[in-house]
Write a structure and sequence with these properties.
By secondary structure, this protein is of the alpha+beta class. The protein has three helices and two strands, in the order ααββα. The protein has one domain (15-108).
């Protein structure tokens, strides 16, 4: 006895498995990108810390010229973040020129959306 096409159940497990595989790939891709973003954030924070320490050292040793401090911070940050693109480094003196704040912004690098 032949079943009609609409009542046939052959292949339903393959359809379910392919849907489940698609969901699993999306979840794994999201997890990989999330971990990548966390790692990039840690790298940028570490580079900002190093740049601030380098600029503070420059303030103690040489001069407190704001352009020179910004150049030192930018050099240290770009050397530490050579794997990222479009890095913007800004500096600001704090506490009447006795401290410096370094802010680094960069476009996040994600892998999974580029594949889709």
């Amino acid at each position: 006895m032949r079943l009609s096409f609409s009542r046939s159940r052959t292949g339903s497990m393959a359809l379910f498995a392919s849907g489940l595989l698609l969901v699993a790939v999306l979840v794994v891709g999201g997890v990989v990108d999330y971990i990548s973003l966390i790692t990039q954030r840690q790298q940028v924070q570490s580079a900002a810390d190093r740049a601030a320490l380098g600029a503070a050292r420059e303030m103690q040793i040489a001069t407190r010229d704001e352009e020179r401090l910004a150049a030192v911070a930018r050099l240290i940050a770009t050397a530490a973040l050579d794997n990222l693109e479009d890095i913007d480094v800004s500096t600001r003196k704090l506490e009447d020129g006795r401290a410096i704040q370094v802010t680094i912004t960069s476009a996040p690098r994600v892998f999974f959306p580029g594949i889709i």
